[in-house]
Design a protein that fits this description.
Number of strands of chain A: 11
Largest interface: A-B, 23 and 17 residues
Distance between the termini of chain B: 40 Å
Shape of chain B: globular
Radius of gyration of chain B: 13 Å
Shape of chain A: globular
Number of helices of chain A: 0
Radius of gyration of chain A: 13 Å
Strand content of chain A: over 45%
Structural class of chain B: mainly beta
Number of helices of chain B: 0
Oligomer: heterodimer
Largest sheet of chain B: 6 strands, mixed
Helix content of chain B: under 10%
């Protein structure tokens, strides 16, 4: 079985650019999460989808972060416009409802 | 807002030693805890979960939970260099859907 696939693995952006991160969840999983990971804040929830419906859109992250789930096997996270403070590792995770969360390898974003 | 506090922030143990990691939730509605392990440059992977008071053992790993104090601990006996990683604790509220993570304990096993 394929795990959670994230692309790209690394992204470098100039301040003000728009970037799109991609995620393919494990086949058959109903829930999909986007997290941001930094050393200071740890893992912060950005978005949560259940059966393709957006259940949480991350509160403080709403204004420049937009996650979409176009179908059950593909999700994107758009950051527009990027700022240097967005530099972090972005993790996508999926699970069958209430079961173990499986993480992708992450996208390391650097904003200059 | 629910907080998950982990301690210590970092820990060094000798190879073959015992590592003890702690995690406490500030939310009285939490009913489930997970421990994830994240090797450097890799994704977090679930190690163990616990929702009942008491202890659960899997090989060299033992998890304790005290629901009254919302405190869980992870103990690794006979620590190996391959156990060196960031250990993340996550908690979920009863009837909730999302996991709230602590900032982790960085464990280094010194060969």
């Amino acid at each position: 079985d394929a795990g959670v696939t994230q692309t790209p693995r690394h992204e470098v952006a100039e301040k003000g650019q728009t970037i799109i991160l991609k995620c393919e969840p494990v086949s058959g999983h109903n829930d999909l999460f986007w997290y941001r990971q930094t050393k200071i804040q740890g893992l912060e929830l950005l978005s949560y989808f259940r059966s393709k419906s957006l259940m949480e859109d991350g509160g403080a992250f709403k204004d420049r972060f937009k996650a979409e789930m176009l179908n059950s096997s593909f999700s994107t996270l758009k950051i527009q416009p990027t700022e240097p403070k967005d530099s972090a590792v972005y993790l996508c995770a999926s699970r069958q409802t209430e079961n173990t969360l499986y993480f992708g390898a992450g996208t390391r974003l650097s904003v200059l | 807002q629910q907080k998950v506090q982990q301690s210590p922030e970092s820990l060094i143990v000798p190879e073959g030693g015992m590592a003890s990691l702690n995690c406490t939730s500030s939310d009285r509605n939490v009913d489930y805890f997970w421990w994830y392990r994240q090797h450097s440059g890799k994704s977090p992977k679930m190690l163990m979960s616990i929702f009942s008071n008491g202890e659960k053992e899997e090989g060299r790993f033992t998890v304790h939970l005290n629901k009254a104090s919302l405190h869980t601990s992870l103990h690794i006996r006979d620590s190996q260099p391959s156990d060196s990683a960031l250990y993340l604790c996550a908690a979920r509220r009863a009837m909730g859907y999302k996991l709230t993570f602590g900032t982790g304990t960085s464990l280094l096993v010194d060969p």
